[in-house]
Amino acid sequence: MHIVCSLQMHGKTTMPHPFAQARRRTSAALLSTFCGLLVSGGALAQGFPSAKPVELVVPFVAGTAPDAVARGLAEGMGRHLGQSVVVVNKPGAGGAIGYKYVQAARPDGYTVVLNSNSVSTGFHGGLMPFDYNAFQPIGRVTVEFPVVAVRGDSPFNKLSEMLAYAKANPGMYRVGSTSIGSHMHLTSLSFLNDNGVEVTHVPFATSGHVTSLLGGHIDAVVTLPGSVAGQVKAGQLKVLGVLGSTREPVFASVPTALEQGYKYQSDLWRGVAAPKGLPADVAAKLEDAVRKTVASPEFKALGDKVGFLPAFLPADAFGRTIASEDKLIAELMKKNGVEIK
Predict the structure, then answer these.
(1) Is the predicted pLDDT of residue 209 greater than 60, yes or no?
(2) Closest to 212 (Cα-Cα) out of 172, 171, 176
């Protein structure tokens, strides 16, 4: 965009009337403001993201699996966008605080969120007044597969052994997960309920479920691979089964629940979304940066280390996935009596 603005004053050298001077000063000010708006507006429209760094909001605390995903994603996106992408943690209320922050932001591409199934559990649990439709999908980034883990000295080595013991001792076996209504809590409830097992569910607000398992305060956890990978490698914990659609790369030798004879799977996806109303050209730039980052060897290496599978989906397909998952989550929460207050 090429804009030329000029203001030329013509007249005699004699002193003009005061009212004429005022009119000229006003005209000059208005023209200057108008030109400034044209220039800045044109630059913003054509030069995204040249104005400032992009905020990638994580609705959970630093040091968690989503935080690790976001930091790897931000590094790659920044490289492809030619502008810094800064991770901003906005934890609390099962992700609702972070989602509310992004939903209220301007749809200009400078504020995006690392969303997940939590956008549905938060809405259906009453933690926020809007659902996934408040956001514009940019692209899916990863898929993670929940696992069932016990202490390294547990006598159980597969899911059937743990379930048999829990059935024989109703209400005595203690299973930890993340906060009430979270995807991990819902996965734990639905898997055990589907198999007729009565346990004591112990949801934790943060990552304290792993510490409690190590300390012997609970007997098992349903969690994400990244939460227990280090402890499994050290022999402190062991994984009995993967509750996802396929084996978890970090625990490649551990069979899925499906492989062990249980008709159950619950994948957790993560992606990038923005406030509704994003300009098409900005959305395209963000999607391209996400796609290239997810396809990179650096992001795959991070997934192998942390415990996620790079799984890019473009905006349209990602949007359909979110919608179908939202219906499923609503049904599961109702079926299992999950209510967040």
Answers:
(1) yes
(2) 176
- Distance from C-alpha of 63 to C-alpha of 227, rounded to nearest angstrom: 10
**Residues 254 and 241 sit within 8 Å (Cβ to Cβ):** yes
At 116, which helix (H) or strand (E)? Answer: strand 111-116
Give residue-wise pLDDT tens across range 278-324: 999 999 999 999 999 999 999 999 998 888 999 999 999 999 999 99
Instruction: Identify whether the C-beta of residue 95 lies closer than 8 Å to the C-beta of residue 118.
Output: yes
Amino acid at residue number 236: Q
What percentage of the chain carries pLDDT values higher than 90? 73
Whether the pLDDT of residue 3 is over 90: the answer is: no
Number of alpha carbons in the 13 Å side-chain half-sphere of residue 101 = 22
H or E element in which residue 131 lies: none
Give the whole-angstrom CA distance, residue 327 versus residue 124. Answer: 10
Residue 261: CB atoms within 10 A of its CB come to: 9
Residues 6+ apart with CB under 8 A from 119: 95, 99, 131, 132, 135, 273, 322, 326
Q: What is the pLDDT of residues 74-92, one digit of tens each?
A: 999 999 999 999 999 999 8
**Maximum pairwise Cα distance, the chain:** 105
Residue entry with tokens 């084996």: 247
Neighbours of 144 (CB within 10 A): 27
Is 30 buried (19+), middle (13-18) or exposed (0-12) by CB count in 10 A?
Answer: exposed
Amino acid at 65: A
pTM, 2 dp? 0.81
